[in-house]
Amino acid sequence: MIRAYARGGIPLYLLIDREAGEAVVCSEPSGDDFGHKSVHKLGTVVALPHPLGFALDTSAFRRPDPEGAPG
Question: In 21-58, which positions are buried (b, 16+ CB within 10 angstroms) versus exposed (e)?
């Protein structure tokens, strides 16, 4: 699926993977892939490159702890 975005020239692809607890940022599309990929732990602030150009606090995307413990 991500290859279709790269092929289409989508400049930035952001995936919030709550199961893995990660935010994946792909940029610089080239052919069937993205030239740059970075993986960040949910709960951190992620700098999103151009064309968005802002920092995203990913704390709100973390899965709640089923036990109710701080996480």
Answer: bbbbbbbebeeeebeeeeebebeeebeeeeeeeeebeb
Q: In angstroms, what is the C-alpha Rg of the chain?
A: 14
pLDDT tens-digit map of 8-58? 999 999 999 999 999 999 999 999 999 999 999 999 999 999 999 999 999
Of the candidates 30, 31, 23, 32, the one whose C-alpha atom is nearest the C-alpha of residue 52 is 23
Q: Taking a C-beta distance cutoff of 8 angstroms, is the pair 40, 26 a contact?
A: no
Distance from C-alpha of 49 to C-alpha of 26, rounded to nearest angstrom: 9
For residue 6, pLDDT over 60 is answered with yes
The pTM of this model reads: 0.84
Q: Which residues in 6-63 belong to E strands, given as ranges?
A: 12-17, 22-30, 33-41, 45-48, 54-57
